[in-house]
Design brief:
Blueprint: H1 5-23, H2 27-34, H3 38-45, H4 53-63, E1 94-96, E2 103-106, E3 116-123, E4 128-131, E5 138-148, E6 150-155, E7 158-163, E8 167-171, E9 176-179, E10 186-196
Antiparallel strand pairs: 1-2, 2-3, 3-10, 4-9, 5-8, 5-10, 6-7, 6-9
Amino acid sequence: MKEPVLDLNQRIAERVRELRAAKGLSLEALAARSGVSRSMISLIERGESSPTAVVLEKLATALGVMLASLFDTPATQKPAMPISPVARRADQVQWQDPASGYLRRNISPPGVPQPMQIVEVHFPPGGRVAFETGVRDARVHQQVWVLEGAIDITVGDMRHPLREGDCLAMQLDRPTMFHNPTRQPARYAVVIASEPLARR
């Protein structure tokens, strides 16, 4: 379901507001935790900005959620019917990063209480996205399976050139960069699982 950009921006706006309120954070506190300016967060929460993947990842990390959950339907809009364990292809939310042009589709059924999520990404030729992974409330594991084309993933100081059929297992605890070094689009699946950090 490729939602109009304005509708998806509104959904992201409501989700960020909802999650910030659930954490009891002011705009200033979320700005301090995420490294995203207060003014930018305010624009996002009013649906007046098309935030990049890098900005959304910073906010998701500061809010203690996965990036995919910023695209979930806000609680105020959820129907009263039970959560479905099936996500039909036509209902899966797609979002395009305005900076890199990469297109991500949330495959997993939203709202199902499981520790993993599946995302499909179409990455344009020459595209590049660098995530500055911050301190998280959970240990996040990720596997990237290349379905078509090629993608280079750099985790910390280690670069992993991946080609069709290759799969990389990684943990989101260091800066990570995705780069398509070719003139052809790439398509890959990402499986994300999280587990709470052990209490000391």
